[in-house]
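Problem: given the chain below (469 residues), write out its structure.
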Amino acid sequence: MKTAVDEEKQKQQLLLAKKEVLAKRIKKESAGNKINAVKIREIVPEASETTSMAIAEFMGNNQAKVDANNFIERLRNEEPDIFNNKVELDKRIFEERKRLSDIHEGSDFYQSGVLQGFDAVISQNNSAWTAQRAQFQLGEAKKYMYGEVYRNLQINGAKAFEKGGAIDQLDNKNKRVSPLNNAEMKKQIVDATIELAINNKDTDILTKLPKKYWSGETASRLQDTTNKINKLKLSEFTAQKTALAHKRKENLRDSKNEIMKNHLEGNPSVLDKKDPNYFELVAYQINIQNNALIPKSKSVAVATKLESSILTNASEGGSMSSVHSSLDNDASESDVIDHILSRTDLHPTEKTALIAKVPTLFEGANLVFSPQVNKNYELGIKEEMGEFMKSAFAGANKALGIRTQSVVKNVYYNTIRQEVKAYIETENEIPKGAKFLNIIEKADKKAGDSLKRFVLEAGGILNEPVTNL
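Solution.
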């Protein structure tokens, strides 16, 4: 038979078994006030003093775990580096523990639970923090070793590798005090040597690296680095040569222009014998004098043809080799100017005028085949031709249909080219805005007239053959 004591004991055990549910109720009914064993007995009068103390401790423990995790998360977000410094971290933990203890001063067993819960969370994280600090210290040791090797090599060069030299001294010192093992220290020495060699483009320092610092991959790494540096040196040498050649070409072009200008103005050209282009300039001076004997009409005809050819082919994707076989299809303005300067069938007057026009001719060429011009052709004349090609006339005469497309298209683009060329000749600039729209309208009209003549010819109304206008 159960005694009253047994029944009370069982009652308290049942209350403790429901402590989580009771904790929620107590927290809600305490309305933010401090929680202690006395307060708990007020809310749960059936709880004994011992049970109230246990519940208070349980509640404090749970709340502290939340607070401790929030504290750690705040440190991670605001002071992530503090986990690499044990002294500073311990200081912050002590301060936070004291803060929580002070807040719950007088809350007897609740305060005790708070401190137990806080300590438990900190203890759970200590191993991870210790491992993190070890990794950080290892990384710092690598940086230090790497930096010291690099610095000593920068100051002493290959002498730093001599027996008993700066690198040996550093290696011996670190073996005593550094957390790095032997393989890690060797790697820092090799890495720093390779980095210095690349930065200084110095393959010689690689050959001086003592083999006692090598590992299995060192030989191949040193060879790869040597190849990389040699390739870089070759690239820089080639770039320098290209730049010098380009500069010489520019100087040559300027000097030729100066000789031609002096000739036209009747002034003598004084050539510097130290100029690397001296002999070529002497020959050019003679050529200019000979060019001056070219008949004016012949020179003008050549210049006119050359101007038209540049305007036709200088657009993107054009065929500059059609201007002259010595030019590549992607020839630049400078290449064209050099070509004009080298011509022996142009008088200096025409050369000078044509050279001045080259930039504008390049602009004009891109204008002739601009998206605006092409789109206007596609949406206008080409659509009209499409209707003609569907007609019985074109169908009965396939050759006539094919010829129609070719001739009408040529009329359109040739008109634009001729009008742009004429505008450049009179205005020394490309047509823009309304002036260019007028040219497109004129090309539209001429191409349209050409198409109408084909329609009439196909119908037998016009007996005269259509020409490529």
